[in-house]
Write a structure and sequence with these properties.
The protein is an all-alpha fold. It contains 12 helices and 2 strands; from the N terminus they run ααααααααααααββ. The longest helix has 34 residues.
């Protein structure tokens, strides 16, 4: 196997290791919401740390066998590997918007990194190192404070913390390169404080990346971290290490275009997560109840207190007399009016008796006379 093929293989395995570490971190963040930065008692979190360490080691070895212009863009495939791996192993499927955002961010980052040219190895002075460490550390702390203030918006909070994590990892790479250049001329005790700076930035990047996955899913924070890390390192390399874009002005314009594409992918991922969060937290709409008939509404509501009370009364024997017709209770006295014949003799027909009784407290209405030949009842 050639050195170039080995470099490509190591870069791909490194991207897979980084993706696996991100998936484990997101799983730990979901299952340990109270320990957002360092769930030290979770063995799975240490597995994520080991996977990230393996990815970093393989990335360094790949750089030893292949050119930077090839290895760095292949590292951007982490987000592309992470989405299908998450769907396969933990059942977290990404939507079409998340896929478009991830692909845009990866393509833009790969194009940007491929346009960064190489230069002679050079280091930073002590003053430059202190200035870079203080400024980048202040930016990371400011993003942490902003993320804490945005705790009611998980997607925004996640993007802020992922950006801080990417800056911390990028500055760790910058100081690693600085110390490595110094060590080409021999190991010096003056580099020990900057080794501590590397450890601080790497640890902060790991803890911030863990916190960025809480309540924000996998795609958005991972894409942000994957893009910000090399972009920050490349920006420092261009401004302070004498690096530049290839192909002059054309390369610079292409690099800016790739940066816009990567930023658009991050915006897509952020808006997709914001939309999903709003959908998950929105209360279910309550429709206005349509007017229904009282009898239907009463039957739908269940038995009334009166029916429940009647249900407690023991049933009567089968041979007990029962009234077949329910009659309203009489409120007032019953008034009888007797219809007489023309000769004022009492009628022998009981139907001649007319009843004037109250009905639900209303007016007294006489029962109809079915015999049209009889005289009108006189009051």
């Amino acid at each position: 196997m050639s050195a170039l093929a080995l470099s490509v293989l190591l870069s791909l395995v490194s991207a897979v290791a980084y993706a696996g570490g991100a998936i484990v971190q997101e799983h730990v963040a979901v299952s340990s919401p109270d320990q957002q930065y360092a769930p030290l008692r979770r063995p799975t979190w240490w597995a994520a740390v080991a996977l990230n360490g393996l990815g970093g080691l393989l990335h360094v070895v790949a750089l030893a066998y292949g050119p930077l212009s090839l290895v760095q863009p292949l590292g951007a495939l982490t987000i592309v590997f992470a989405l299908p791996m998450a769907a396969l192993f933990v059942g977290r499927r990404a939507g079409a918007t998340a896929w478009r955002g991830a692909i845009m961010a990866t393509v833009g980052l790969a194009g940007l990194l491929s346009l960064v040219g190489s230069s002679e190895s050079q280091s930073l002075s002590t003053t430059q190192r202190v200035a870079v460490a203080v400024i980048s550390g202040g930016v990371v702390v400011a993003l942490m404070i902003a993320g804490r203030a945005a705790h009611r918006h998980p997607a925004v909070r996640s993007m802020l913390l992922a950006t801080a994590s990417g800056i911390a990892f990028g500055m760790s790479s910058v100081f690693t390169k600085t110390v490595a250049v110094d060590w080409t001329g021999g190991v010096s005790a003056a580099d020990l404080p900057f080794l501590a700076v590397i450890g601080v930035f790497a640890t902060a990047g790991m803890l911030l990346s863990q916190a960025s996955y809480r309540g924000a899913g996998l795609a958005a924070p991972l894409a942000t971290l994957t893009v910000v890390n090399p972009v920050v390192a490349a920006a420092v390399g261009i401004t302070m290490f004498g690096e530049s874009f290839r192909y002059g002005t054309t390369g610079t314009a292409l690099a800016l275009s790739c940066g816009v594409v990567a930023a658009g992918g991050l915006i897509l991922l952020t808006t997709e997560r914001l939309t999903r969060t709003a959908t998950e937290t929105a209360p279910e709409p309550q429709g206005v109840p349509e007017p229904v008939e009282p009898a239907i509404a009463a039957s739908a509501a269940g038995p009334t207190p009166v029916e429940e009370l009647l249900a407690t009364i023991p049933e009567q024997p089968a041979d007990a007399p029962r009234e077949e017709t329910l009659v309203p209770t009489q409120v007032g006295p019953t008034v009888f009016a007797v219809a007489y014949d023309a000769d004022d003799s009492p009628a022998g027909d009981p139907a001649r008796y007319r009843f004037y009784g109250p009905f639900y407290g209303g007016s007294y209405v006489p029962m109809p006379d079915l015999d049209r030949h009889r005289e009108r009842v006189k009051s």
